[in-house]
Amino acid sequence: MSRVPILIASFLFLFQLPSSFAVAGESDSPTAYSLLQSYNFPVGILPKGVVAYDLDTSTGKFHAYFNDSCSFSLVGSYQLNYKSTITGYISENKLTKLSGIKVKVLFLWLNIVEVMRKGDEMEFSVGITSANFAIQEFLESPQCGCGFECKDSDSKLEMFGRNSFVSSS
Predict the structure, then answer these.
(1) Phi, psi of 164 (to 5 degrees)
(2) Which N-terminal residues, if any, form the signal peptide (predicted)?
(3) What would the pLDDT profile of 40-79 be if each residue is shown by its tens digit?
(4) Contact by Cβ (8 Å): 104, 166
């Protein structure tokens, strides 16, 4: 089979991609972090290192991609783990049906399934319980591996300073 028809077919396919598809790093596309802000979320709910994302603006379905999984600890004994691909649905002040984000509470790893912004607070739900944190704790993105305790980081924010996931809401 000739390469020319394959190249033409590939070229035509690219033009048929939905206009809602966006990849971080394209000059005319917003970054994943600025996209979060357009839905009224602070950038710090995503760690640094998103290499690409896609969003279907008609449904809010999204995927965010890292080169690898991303783990870090935060002051207050929380450990977070982001898989290399995070999925969910985004709308104004709400992330739902999340997949790919876990938090370690005591000795258990729990999936964060929903995040909602309520005024100046962020509510994180693991399904059976939720916890609220001040939005100021999410103004900067943590770094994979070291969170906010990186040697090159000027930020020494104390995030998740209390063990709020222990009590049920």
Answers:
(1) -75, -20
(2) 1-22
(3) 999 999 999 999 999 999 999 999 999 999 998 876 668 9
(4) no
Pairing of strands 114-118, 108-111: unpaired
Segment 6-15, tens digit of pLDDT = 333 333 333 3
pTM: 0.73
Beta-bridge mates of residue 115:
95, 124
**Paired strand residues for 8:** none
Residue 35 parent element (H or E): helix 32-38
105: left (phi over 0), alpha (psi -120 to 50) or beta: beta
Evaluate whether 157 touches 140 at the Cβ level (below 8 Å). Answer: yes
Pick the CATH number of 19-166 from 2.30.240, 2.40.10, 2.60.120, 3.40.50: 2.30.240
